[in-house]
Amino acid sequence: MEIKSGEDRGDIDFTLADSPAVSLSGSVSEIPRASFQLEVSLRLAESSAIATTVSTATARVGSDGRFRFPRVAAGAYRIRFTAFPVPFWSSGSTVMTQRILGMTPAFTTSSFREGQPVGPLPPTPTVWAELPVVVGDRDLAGLTLVVKPGARISGRVEFRGVSALPTSQQLLATPVAIMSADVRNLGLVPVGRIEANGDFTTVGVPPGRYAVEPMPTQTLLGALAWNQTWRLESTMVQGQVVTDDLIAVGEKDVEGVTAVFTDSRTELTGLVRDVFGAARPDATLYVFPTDPGSWGRAREVLPTRAGRFKITGLPTGDYFLAAVTGEPPEHWNTPAFLGTLIAMAERVAVMSTGNAPIEITVR
Description:
With about 375 residues, the chain is mostly beta strands. Helices cover about 5% and strands about 40% of the residues.
């Protein structure tokens, strides 16, 4: 069904019909040692286009590699299994993990001591498997998930500008985040780092589209954070700019990634008003590139109590800027939601030389 902005629906009724529920059971071909999240998920085959983190069902993988879904309705599904290695504990470093859930990474740290670098990645590989199944009116047994190694993403950081470069200590203390275009929850993964020479490598991931970004704001000491000077301008693979910031990952490692940082600053400032000219501090602003392929750069911004806003650090280029009222959606950074904002948005060209203040009318 389609729900439009501000629309209420009270005519949604369900008819409960008897339908046989069957069981699915099988095994994983290889149980990795020292891995996170030993469980398999079951999702409707068409659910990859739906912005949800919810699986139809999950089942634990036993020590013998076996799993079982006891009650499954008829339909087409995909059974997925991903096991990430646990962090590698190294003396003199800080263990970091992150949760891969869409485009917003959440970091956790342990064994923290001031001045320590992010620890090295574990040598154990990530493994994954996927199996399409069609469920009818009979139990399915003997399913086998053949695991494969996850692909790692590697490359280096490059700095373009005249400011002082980050020190080797700053680089070693900077985690490299992995973000996914798929909103499914991949769970906790060990975090890689930038090496002293500027190289980086991520933990292995299953096939999909990912953004890889060094996160200087997550450095372990405020004095080490170099994001006040440098910001990510673009991501390149084998010398070609990735226009949507998302890297297509298959079953082979992706090499030759370059994260380009610049010290040039951009800034959008202005005021949010309603049609009568009154400031609207209750509005929410969304700024996203006019190129749908780059919507991974979308931002959600709240104005001050006076209705003023400031957006810094956007890469130069053409953007849509929209201001709306009401409760923001939980998954606002989806193409479906951003697409609805285009008709009401202002077009803005973000320039490295600066932009004049903008007055935007809330819709």
